[in-house]
Each structure stands twice: as structure tokens, then as C-alpha cells.
Amino acid sequence: MARLADYFLVVTYDLDKRVEGEGQGRILQRFPEKDWEDSPFPQGIELFCQPSGWQLVPERQPASFFVAVLTDINSDRNYCACFTFWEGLDRLQLQKAEASEVDEVDEEPAVVQSAQVFAPKSLVLVSRLDYTEVFRNCLGLIYTVHVDSLSVPLETVVGNLLTCIIPIAGGSQINESPVCSLEKVPQVLACDWLLACLQPGQEEREESLRTITLGAGDRQVIQTPIDDSLPVSGTSVAQLFRQLGIINVLCLFCAALTEHKILFLSSSYQRLTDACRGLLSIMFPLKYSFTYVPILPGKLLEVLSTPTPFIIGVNSFFRSETQELLDVIIADLDGGTVTIPECVHISLLPEPLLQQTQTLLSMILDPELEIADQAFPPPSTQSSALKIQDKEIRGVFLWLFARLFQGYRWCLHIIRIHPEPVIRFHKAAFLGQRALSEDDFLMKVLDGMAFAGFVSERGPPYRATDLFDDLIANQVERIRQEETCPHKVMNHVKELAEQLFKNENPYPAVAMHKVQRPSEKSQTTTQNQTQFPTLDDVAVQLFIDHAAAKLKTAPPVVKVELKGMVPSGPPLGDTVDRNGIVMANSARRLEVVRNCITYIFENKMLEAKKLMPAVLRALKGRAARICLTQELNQHVLQNRAVLDDQQFDYIVRMMNCTLQDCSHMDEHGIAANLLPLVTAFCRKLGAGITQFAYSCVQEHMVWTTMQFWEAMFYSDVQNHIRALYLETEDNSSEQQDGSAGGREISALDLASEQNRLWPTLSKEMQAERVQKEESTVFSQAIHYANRMSYLLLPLDTSKNRLLRSAGLGDVESVSNSYVTNSIAGSMAESYDTESGFEDAESSDVANSVVRFINRFVDKVCNESGVTNEHLKALHTMIPDIVQMHIETLDAVHRESKRLPPIQKPKLLRPTLLPGEELVMDAMRVHLIPDGREEATGLMGGPPLLPAEGAIFLTTYRLIFRGTPTDPLVGEQVVTRSFPIASLTKEKRISVTLPMDQFVQEGLQLRSCTFQLIKIAFDEEVASDLAEVFRKHMHKLRYPQHVQGTFAFTVGQCGKLVVEHKTKDKNQSLKTLSKNLVKSAKRTIGRQYVTRKKYSPPTWENRSSFQSEMDEDEISVSEEVDQSSLTLSSTIRSSDRQTMSNVVERACCRDYQRLGLGTLSNSLTRSKNEPFRISTVNRMYTVCRSYPGLLIVPQSIPDTTIQRICRCYRQNRFPVVCWRNSRTKAVLLRSAGLHAKGVVGFFKSPNAPSSVPSQADSTSLEQEKYLQAIISSMPSYSESSGRNTLSGFTSTHMSTSDSSDKLRQPKIGALMKQVMGTKEDVPGTFSRGGKWGSIRGSGRLSAYNPDVGTRLAGKESPQSNGGPSEALFLRQQKAYLYIIGDKAQLKGGKQDSFQQWEVVPIEVCDVRQVKNSFKKLMKACVPSSSISDPNMSFLRCLEESEWMALLHRVLQVSVLVVELLDTGSSVMVSLEDGWDVTTQVVSLVQLLSDPYYRTFDGFRLLVEKEWLSFGHRFSHRGAQTLGSQSSGFTPVFLQFLDCVHQIHLQFPMEFEFSQYYLKFLAYHYVSNRFRTFLLDSDYERIELGVLYEEKGERKSPQVCKSVWDYIDRLNKKTPIFYNYMFSPEDEEVLRPYTFISNLKVWDFYMEETLSEGPSYDWELRGRQERVAEETPEKPDSSGPKSHRHIVWPCYDSLSKVVPDAITKLLQDLQSLEAELGQTSEKWKDTWDKMKNSQKTEIKLESKPSFSSSLLMSSNLSHQRRSQGVYLQESGVGSSINLALDCEASATSTPVPGRPSTSTLYSQFQSTESENRSFEGILFKKGALLKPWKPRWFVLDKTKHQLRYYETRQDKECKGVIELADVESVIPGTPTMGAPKNIEEKAFFDLKTTKRVYNFCAQDSLNAQLWMDSVQSCLSDA
């Protein structure tokens, strides 16, 4: 029972205490005067009566009512109902007040007199109960009695109010106050009557005790809730949702649960209280335990800046003051908004709960939403009444909490039962089982105060239960089944709502309210009302005292509390599996884990080793981890399991792997299950020394987490206490087992039973049980102190392991402090101390462990009620335990050091090249997988990476060799290497290896040979060693001077030698280089030298060669310089021999071949030679980067050249490098012009200039120079009338072969493309104006407006010779086109009379190439696997723009080729003339001249254009320290890629194979050869590299020149040779250049892990030899399979699956070797074959090109001009010739649907044996072609009909695929059919493409054919 009201007060405006207009309230009267014992009087009520402040107002306000809530010191809530009305003040009172206030002089009484002033007065009820309506009625009644002057004394009403007693719960049995007033009954009697009313007869109890009356003719019913644990909400929840909306309230709900600050704003006080009440109601069953102030007075606003969470309501009047609150969520009830500050993050409910809750709420609040779209909505769907809606919403939240907390009782640990239950909640297990351990919301809720209260209130197993307990216990199953169906959930919610409603309104039918309200008159009257009277306190007190006395004598009303056992509900385990966490194939994984453990214990180590990686992968899953702990448990006998070393090692590895994925919370209890195991598994190290598994599994966060130890401890204590009581139970009652149905009794059930029995036990029994429990807890505490010391003390206590656990910052403060303390102490010592302080150090580890264990013991013992004596005992024991353990560990540590180390894989030595030496020996590392998926097993097959092995640093390479960690491929050797010179980027990384838990330091090394080595150093590698490794690597990568590179230092003991005295043994060579470089006085007319490899003349020939030389002279210009003496006179006889080299290696051979200048024996020269070899640069004085001998026009003297060269960058003036043998057009190269030269260059000749300046004269000379070139062309000299472009093009067209007609664009279109001009700008060109430029934006313009039209084979619209063509070419073609850089040609005018024309293009600069290459490397060799779909390989490739750059270079080259081919000369004059110029010029020569497509020619081309003309290889390749900053720019690689693209399109035109190009691409950066070192010939001569003698090499192995090496290799093996080589005479190649036609070079992608890059051939041979030397043991197991698995990234495909010809040549060689014959060179064999083939063909008169086709290697490229398509296949290659079908000349077969012929291609042989039916048929040719007899073969196997010219013919003329045949029908003879053959012999074959007409010899034969074809069709 409880009082309805504790205190009644009258509070009024205090006139005496006004401060600066701020009024105050004071309590006028208070009843009762003295405090109740059970509820002290709350302070500060006056503030709450007027929360906005006490103020006087000029007019009367209506009376107001609200309820404020005050929380007292014991956190009990007092409800203060304030009823406020306004009274007029008389002037006298006011004047008194004015007079006393001296400050307010300005306010005169006169003002007040004119307008009356009203002051507020409040009637306040203070109560522990929250009955808003009852309070409103009671206070309203008192006011009514006063205002309407009713005849009832106010004292009576107040007295009755204060003595009204009602039950707290259990329906509305309400005591009724007397119905009489004291006027009719004498006072004494009244009191007795009152008592009589307190105990009326039973029969009237039901009726009367539901109402109360205060004795003023009023009656009201109070409905008390049936169960007071459920909150009473009225309609407040529904109102709250109406005001704020669903999402907002859910936000507030989550914010309140996760302890944020919430502030409500409204202008209505009552609404604030209701909103707060509503928010608290939906939080049930959690209770809010922080600051709760629904109405906060303005004076106390500073409370809002408190650091703790709160729910507070404030009047909107103070809105401005709330603006600066940074971390408060503000809910504005009037505006319906919730404002969340930026810094506040609210964790929302986990999905799908959030979504489901929102759906349910909207079904309640807005039921029409669901049917809003229905065509025929049901007639009525208005939402339920507000008070019902309120309960429905609360029902939703009850349902929500039942889902959130389902199964919580299974995670309660009961650690004491007597004298009081002590219960702890195992949060980690709860989250783990719900699979919500990552969920932010639930984590915060479980950590919060509200949940702690929930556990202590609802944890006890024996107590009264309520609706929520019932829901958790009995409805979980239902909730689970219905959760996906909102309508079923809704029904459930409605049932809950009904229960909630019934609880609040047990008797809804009763409506006997009768409460007077003040009459309208009294409310509206403005006359002076009487003041509220002062009540007679004695009279009121008398009421109170009487009631109290009577209550004492009355028998106590005992409400029976129904305690009972709280049911736990279904266990959690089942709920989880349904959430789909269990993996699909988990059963298989568990099987693997079980098998592996069985193998380990059965000592089948090899089997276990094979399964290990799979097990470690499986242990990522929770089920497998639990399985592991269960399996291991079975192998423990009496808490001990002794293993041998290897078993121990495996078990520890599995434990570590299991633990590494556990979080520090251990939510799945896996660490908990392993804890007893790590102290059970052990191995014997020596006499009496045992090492336990715990010493090897300490590196995990979980062991340093205080919560983990607490949870473990509590669960163990619970088990022991359960065991304690189970024993007593078993003794007392055996029959219980039967009733329990065999199910284990849980600890909670036991506890509830014990709690029930507790009151019945004797005192001794009680004491005994308490003592037993206490000692159980105590013994566990000792046990845990031991366990913790095991897992916290490291094996080597002298090392400071606790530094490792510094990573525990994210664990809660408990462990945080532990870590920081221990580290603070230990860091200082472990770093400062030298060897003398070991003790201090180890004790420091001990101290921190002791501190940690002490803290743990204090916490758990205090919580579980251990006595103080026991606690003290523990504190003294702990240091001893730790000390003892340290001593045992020292012995174990000593012994474990003696153990043989774990067998790591043997380090494999790499094979080295001759002369290659190790700089750093093996360092054990792990090779980690990068972003390439092939080797990691993701694409299928076992993972080759990660691999374990060693990294070697040699003078030449960086090599990794090792074996995969996956035992399934453990026998394979993995090799990755790259030349140290190609290293482009090195960065440090840290790596966690899958096997170990440690984070290792590692390196990621990227090379421009498209290789990436990502390594992690093994723990045995000291970090300083890794640093030394990096330094060495850098020193080798960037030597001081080019002589430090491997090509120079090879074979010299790894010392970096800078002097080169020791190197040049050849004296004459040295003198020559000195002569050339040092002595400028003696000048030599020196020929340019390259390493062009002609067969060297024999020694006998040498002498004659020299004697020739003596008279030889190089042709020079007419005015012979004095200095240009003959060679013989310049060089001393000792150097003569060397000169044979000079001439032999010179490019002059090439110049002679081209007819550009010859070596003649006479000084007088035939003048008709247009060009001469000039020696002007013989001393490299004119241009450092040019060769010594240059080709210039005959008519230009050397002096002019010296002047001209100044106009060009780097002095690189135009020189001729190639001449077209047919049109005699020449190709020139130069650098771009200097800026000053440009203007002069284009100045019109008639510009007025008085004195010719220097610039003018040079520009004139320049013009003269260009004119000389033009006049050298035969077409110029013979052109009396210049032919127009159109005429010229047509004549040219007719000369080219017909198949090219299809694809040869007119030059105009080509130009247009190269320059990328849009067609729509005709206005920008004058007739002779310069060309529009390639449009340059940030991106390369890879695509041009007419790409599409050109691809389609059409010309763009203007190119039909219309006027627009004139924009691109003059009507008369220029004799010389200058391809110039757009940027340099600005501002120049051009004269229409000059015969040259400038083509401005925009070239890619070096920076672009460099960046593009970086991106290309990242795309082809990503460093980590890419999950982002936007970063796919193709996307990255596109972004690198590499293909676009190739497109540009090829496009310009093709244009130049076209121009040269049409007879115009071209001068390429771009950038500095050594990057893009070189690329274009070399490509042009390669495309135009078949010679350069042979081995000799390509070598010559590279030597001439790249080496002699000074491409800066060292600088662009960043080969030395000096060029390190410039970075790697692969200009030469880009050129090789272009050649590769051309090779793909014309596979029959090149003598060398694709491998040759890859070989060059690899070695031009490898620095193995000297060929590609240094930047120009000048530098090479200076170093004496240029004329190295052939006869003298230090060792025959060491090749200085890559060309010599290739030559030697080519003699041995056909690897560089292209079997398809069958060139056409003088063929000019015109490749397609669009990006769609270009392919990514496989050089960038391929990798051979078995042997590393295949470009160092010595290594290849050696590895094979080693393999052969170890003969395999004879295998008796049975016949061996000949099948061999080929892995794309592991095996070298060309070696394992060679193409047919290579294979045959190899077989031939091996057979010859077996027979003991001297084996013939492969080339001779091949040539013989070809010749015999040719003779056969001549006999058969076949087209010539088929010969080479018979011998085609497996290259899947097509040669467009012939229409040959070679289909790649695994074995050989089929050749599909479709010459009769013109369409196939340009089309490629559609990828994706291979044709049948290709599927069967591997069976194809020259004799086609698959002939089902054959014979002769006449076939009608295509349109207008005659009938011809052909030999037809019907092939069922390949499902095709083939035809040949004759029966003996091997070459198939055509194929009809039967798959395409639609029908076979009898035909009719057509025109030209064979005569005298009967009509029935004709039949037609209809395919999808066309109809074939056939004719057999007779009708019988025709029928046979038709039937055969038909049967083939039906079979298919």
C-alpha cells in the first residue's frame, strides 16, 4: 500500500526577494510539516513550479497544470503536480515591496495603480506515484472549492487527500475516504467514521473500494496497474510518435539506449513530461538510470553541460541557450524535428531489425499506407484509438527487445547462490552466439548502465515474473517463425498490446467520475478574487495523525508476492545456424580438421603435413575452430597429453591459427575452450623438464584482456558451484532424474531451487553452505592466478614481451592500464640497460604480471564475496606463484634452445651466369603473392605462392628461390628474378604471414622487366641485415659510373672498378681511342662504326683488306680541307690492324647498300651521285650525339653544315638515313629547330631586310640545304609539269597489288588522321597554309573523327578529290614533307613556292611515356589483388594510355611510309631528335625495307638509328647515380612493342620470332651486355668500348655484345627464328594502327616460376643438365603415365609444349646423338627442307606462299593481305585457307565460337584419314564462274565436306561446314553445266550463306551423295 500524496504545498510569489526583476517563489504552507520517514521532502520545489521564472503579469492567465519529476539522492523519483493560478496583488503589498527595494527608483507606484498586477500561486502535490489525471482532478477540486466558495472546508479536502492510501498494484482495490464533510459530523466522530471506512465489509469491498472522494461531493476511480513492473504510459508514446515521426523516435530510442544526451524542447510543460515518459516506456524492460528531468527550470540550464548522459526537457523559451551545446541531440516536439550534432554518431538497431521495426510502426501509425495504391481499398482502415495505439507501439518495442535479448539467460553466470544470488552476464558469449560481435548498437547496449541494471534485476532465478519474462521464455519460437511476415507479427503485437492495456485499465467499464470544475463565471470574472486562504495546519495535521494511528492498529495488508522459477527459454545455439554463418561446405572442412588431428596423433606426419594448409584455411571458420577444441579434448588423458616434437609443433601451429582470428573478446568461447588444453599438451625436453603448449601460444590479444579472464573465471566458478549442489541433490533425491527427462539441470535452475529452500534451512545449514561456496570461489581464484601467470609470462623472461602487447589500446580501460603501466616501466629499463641489469628486467616483467593478476583477483573476489582474510592470502601468494613459474620457465627456455630448430625448407642455391657473383648470400624470406592471381591458386590448381625460400643478391640479378608452403606442390621449385639494373621502385611493407602470427617487415621490389618480388623477411633475419641488403641493392642499381654496371664488372670479383686501365689489353685499341678523342690536332676522317655483324674476314684476308685500306679514301666535298688527309697517313702503322674493324663494322655498308655514298678508290668522284659521306663530324665537334660519318647532299660544303647545325637543338641537323630504292625519295632525321631559327626558317624571301643578319644568313643556308635535298630526287629533276595528287595517287594505286586496294587509304585521309583535324574548320587554311595540328588535350587524342569510316574501309567524305582535299594536300604534292612538333612551329608563314611542306603533329613527351609506363606496370603486375571493379585490368590498361601512345607512333610512321612510297621525301624533326624521331625513323625503315626485317638488317637498324644516332640509353634507363632522378623512360621498349604489333599483323614478313623482340626488351635494361650502355658513340669511344676485338675475349663465355650472343645462340637453337618467314619482294607493310587492332604484348604478362625469366640461356641449359644428372629411382609401382600437367604461370610453355617444327628438330638432334652421328646444324636441316619443298611445289605449280605455310609454328595471328588465318592450338596448328572467300581477307573469326575445323585441328594431318565418303563432283563456281570437277571428301569426324583440286592434292581448296547446311535437295541443270549428264544427277546443297550447285556422274551417284550428306546431318 502507498500514500496517494506525500506532501501538499502552497507556493507563492515572493515579493521580498526580487532581484533585478527576477522574481522568486516561496513556500507559503506545507503539509505535513515534518518529513515522512520513508520519503523525505524534496528541496527546490519552488523552482519547478514556475520553470520559466517567477514573474508578475499585467493580466490574468488561465490556470495551468503540469507534472514535474524530481529525483532524490536515492534515485527515487518524486512526481510534483503543479496547479498554478493567478491572483491580483493589492497595491499595499506592492508598495511595501517597492519601498523596500531601494534599487528600483525609476518604477513608480503610480504606474502600478493604473494597471493591476497578477502574481502566480501554485498548489503542489508531491507523490511517489505517477497518476497525472488523479492529481489534476484533486488539485482542480481544491481550486474549485476555493474559487466557487463551496461549503466544504479546504482543510478537510487537503486532509483527506493526504491520508488517501491505495495499493501499488494488483487492480484498483482503492480505499475510499469519507463521503461526508466535517460540517455535518463532529470532528472526533469524523475520524472514527473514517476508520470505519477503511475496513468495510467484504461484500461492499468490490464496489466501494475502487473510488475515492475528498469529501467535496466528488468521486473518482483510480485504476492501479495489475503488475507495477510494467510502465504506465497512457497515450504518451503514441503522442510522441505523432509529434516526431517514426524515424526520429527510433533515433532517440537508440540514442537513449547507447547513452547519448537527449534534450526535448516544447512550449508546453505537460508535453515535455509526456514525451519523456513515452521515451522511457518504450525502453522497457531496460530502465533509464541517468539524469532524468522532464522539466528543467531556466535557472538550472547549466545542468545541460554535464558530461553524463541525460534526458531533459526544456521550454522552447530557452531555445537560444541550447544552441551552443555540441554533443546534445535536440528533439523539438512542436516542430517535429530531431537535430543530431555532427560529432555524435548514433549506432542504430542492427538490420534487419531496424527495417522490420519501422514497417510494424508504420502499420500501426499509418495503416492506410499499405493499401494506398490498391484499386479497391477496404472501406475502413482508420488507426485504433490513441490509447490503444499507444499500447500497440509499446508491443512492437517489447517484441523488439525479445528479439534482441533472446537467450540472454543462457549467458548468465551465477557465481554465488547464498546468501544472495550474485550474477554476471557473459557479454562476449552472447554476442558471439548471436553472431553480432561486430554490431555497434548491441555492444553499446550491453556495456551500458541500463543493461547492468537489467541483469541485476532480472538475473536472479527465483523471483516474480512479468510479461517480458514470459515473452523471452515461451514466445521465442513463435517470434522466430513469424519475423519475416509482418502481418503475423502484427497479430502478436496486438496480443501484447491487449495485455499492456489490461494492465493499465483493469476495470475499463467503471466510469464514476464526478469532479467539480470551477463555474464559468468564476473563471471569467475579472473582479478581485479573494486570496487563497491560509489553511489551518492543526486541522490538517489532526487528519493525518488519526489516519496514521488507525493504520498501526489495522492488520497489515499482505499482498502475496508470487515468486517462482524464472524459465530460461530456448538456448541460443539453435538460433544462430539459421543466420547462415555456417559455410556450405563446412562438413567437409570439419572432416579435414578431424583427419589431420587423427594423423598427428597416429604419427602419420607426412599425411598431416599435406592436410595442414587446408586445415589452416578451414580454421578461419568458427565451426572448424570449435571442432578443433573438441577433437583435441579427446586426446587429453588425466589433464595431460605428452607429444613428440613434431606433433607438438603441429598442434601449436593449429592452436595459434585458431587463436589468431579470435578477437580479444573471444565471443565464440574458443580461447576459453583452448585454455585447459594449452596447459595439457606438452613435450619432454629433458630430465624432468616439460614444455607446455601455453609457452608457444602467448602472442594473442585475448590473454591480455581482463574481461576474458573474468568471464572464464565466472563460468568455471558456476560449474563448480553447480557441482557442489548437484552432489547434495543426488544424495537427497534419486527420483528427480526421471522427472527431469534426462536433461541437464542448468546452474540457474539449481540456484532457483536453492533460493526457494533457503528460508526453510536452519542457521547452521545456511552458514555451512555460504562457507562452502566461498571456499569454492577462493580455490578457483588460486587456480586462475596460476593460469594467468602461464599465459602472461613469456618463455624468455629476459626479453620484454610485454612490449609486444602494446597493440592492446583498443581493449577497455581495465587492460589498458595494465598495458600502459607495464610498458611505461619496462620501456625505460629494457632500452637503457646493458647486460648487467638482466634481473631488473625480468623482475619488471614479473611485476607487471603480478600487478595484472592482483587487479583481476581484487575485482572478482569483491564481486563474488570472498572474505578479507582469503583475499589477503591471495595477495601474498601471487608473487610467489609468478616467481616459481619464472624459474621453471628458465629451465624450459634453456632446454628449448638446445632443440634442433624446426626444419625449415633447405635453401636452394641459384645457378649463376659465368662471371656473376653473389654480393649477399641467402637471406631466408617468404615470397608473398601479389595481385597476379595465376600463382595463388585462385584460378584453379594449388597455390604456388606464398613460397618459402631465400633471396640472393648477385652482381647481376636479384633472385628468389624457394618452395611453395602448400605441401601439395612442395616439391616444385619457385624462382623469381630480375636484373638488378631493372629495379624501378622499392618500398618497405609490413606483412602478416598466414602461418605465423607475427608481423614481419618486408620489401616490395618492382622491376621494369614486368616483375614484382614481394618478400617478407623470416624472423631469423635481423633487421639490420635487411637494411644492409637494401643498401647493397641501391649501390648495385645506381653505380657511380656506367663502368660500375655488370656488363663492365663481369668476372671481376664484384669490386666496382672505376679506372679502366686494367680492362683494355689491346694496345692498338687504346691508342686509337686516344687518337680519336684526345688529339684534336690530328684529325681522322673516321667512318662511323657499329657492331654490325658480318662474318669477319679470315686472317689471310685481313692483310689484303688492309692494303686496300691504305689507298682508300672517303669521298669528300670538292673543296678538300687541309685537315682531311687520307686515313693511312693519319694512323700509325701500329693501329692499322684496328682499322679493319672500323670499316668492317661501319654503317657504311648500309649506306652502300642503299646507294647513298660509296667508298671509292679515287679522289675524283662522279658528280652525278646526289649524296656524299661527310666527315665533318669525325671529331664529334659538330654534334656530340651523332655518328662520325654522315650522309649529306653532294652540293653542300662542310662549312655550311657547321653553320646550319646551330639552328637545331643539340646541333642535330638534318641528315639522310635511308633512301627508297624505287622512288629514290629519302628519309631524313634531325632534332626540332631552336626557337630563334623557326621564324627565320619560314620568313618569306622577299621580306625587306637591309643588312642580312646572322639569323637571316643561316635561314638562307637552311633553305639552300633543303633545296639541295629536294633537287637530289629524280622526280624533281624530271618534273617539267608536276603531277597532281589525284593523278599521282591513281598511278601509285595501280602499281600496288590488288589485295591492298581494299585497305589503302588515300594519303589525304591518313594525314587528316595523323593531325586529327576536324573536318569542320575549313576557314583556317589558306591554299598553302600549314596543316591543322593533331589536337592536343590533356589526354592523347587516340580516336579521330573519321576512325570509324576508315575502319569500315570507306574514305571519309571529303577525300574524293573535292575542294576540301586541298586543305590537306596541295594540288601539287610537295617534294619534302617536314614532320615537325606543333609546339615549335607556331607563328611561321609558309610560302607557296617552296617545294616543302610542314606537317605539325603533337608528340608525346618523355614525361608522358614515363607516367604511362608506370601505370602499365601497375596494371600488368598489380602489387595486391584488386577488389574494386573500377580497377580491373582492362580499366587500368586503358588509364595507362600505353596503347594510345603506340597508336600515335605507329600512325605517324605509317603516314611517313605512305609519303615515301609515293615519292616525296620526308624529314622527321621532332623534340631533340633522339626519342620519338628515332622511333619513327626506325619504324619507317622497318615497314618500307624488307632487309630490316631479317636478323642482320634489324641489328643494323638498331645500331644505326638507336646507338649511333645517340639515343640516350643510359640516361633514359636511369643506369647510373647521376640519372637516378630522371627516372626510367622506356622509349626503346615502346619501339619494340610497335615492332611486335607489326609482327603480329604480318607474321610472314619477319625472319626473327617474337621471342627475339622479348629477348631484346629484357636485355636492353638488364645491363648484361655493353651494347645498350652509354648515350652516344662519342661516349663509347671515350671508354674504348666501340672497337672491341673479336679475337681477344677474357673468356669465351662472357659476351660483350648482345648481337654476338644472339648470333651464337641462333646457331645452336631455332628459338629466335620465325618458321613462317617467307617474305614477298619489296613489300611495304602498312599495319592497322587503331587501338582496337593493337594487342597487349605478352612480354608484359608472362611469367615462368619454374625457372625465372628465360632470357639468360646459360641458366636454362644448366638447370636441365642438373635435372638430368639426378636419375630417378626405378619405379616399381606400375606403368607410369606420360601425361604431364602444364601450369600457365609455372612452366615455360615453349619448352614443355614446343611447336611441331621445333619438336621435330629436337628429336632429329637427339636421334643423331644416339646414333653417334655428328649432328647437323638446325638451320641447314631447315633450309634443306625448304628447298625440297620448293622443288615439289614447282612441279605442282602451286602458289608460292603455301610452302612456308606447311611449316607454320603455332602463332595465332593473321596476315591480312593473304587472308591466312592460323589458329592456335595446344599441339600444332591447323591452317585454314579460305582463298576463294574474299570476305575472310579482312575479317577474323569471331572469338568465343570456335569453328568445328579448329576443334579438330589437332587431328589434322597431311593425309586426311577421316574420309567417310569421297569422289568427283562437278561444282558450279560463285557468280559467273564455270562448273569445275573437284575431288570431294565427306568427313563425318570433322563434320565437313572438303574439296580438293585433284585426288592426290594435299591442299584443301575449300570447306563446307555441315553445321551450316540447311538442306540437300535434287537440283536442275543451269547454264554452263556439264553436257550429256542426266537431269537427276544434279543436286543442290543449301547452307546458311549460299546455295552450292553440284553434279554427279549419274543419278545413282547423286543419290548416294545426297544420302551420305543427309545421314551426316541426321547423326549430328
Sheet-strand content, in percent, reads 5-15%
Shape type: elongated
Let me know the number of strands: 47
- Return the average pLDDT rounded to an integer: 74
Percent helix among the residues?
A: 40-55%
Low-confidence stretches: 102-114, 171-209, 574-584, 733-742, 801-842, 1054-1145, 1160-1164, 1237-1255, 1280-1305, 1317-1371, 1589-1596, 1668-1677, ...
Distance between termini?
96 Å
How is the largest sheet built, in terms of strand order? Answer: 25-24-23-22-28-27-26
Q: What's the quaternary structure here? A: single chain
User: What Rg do the Cα atoms give?
Assistant: 51 Å
Q: Could you say which structural class the secondary elements and strand pairing correspond to? A: alpha+beta
What is the overall number of helices? 66
> Largest sheet, described in full?
7 strands, antiparallel
In short:
With 1916 residues, this protein is an alpha+beta fold.
What do you see in this structure?
The protein has 1916 residues and is an alpha+beta fold. The chain is built from 66 helices and 47 strands. Strand 26 (983-992) and strand 27 (999-1007) form a beta hairpin. Helix 11 runs antiparallel to helix 12 (386-404), helix 32 (838-863) packs across helix 33 and helix 53 runs parallel beside helix 56 (1531-1545). The two termini are 96 Å apart. About 21% of the residues have low confidence.
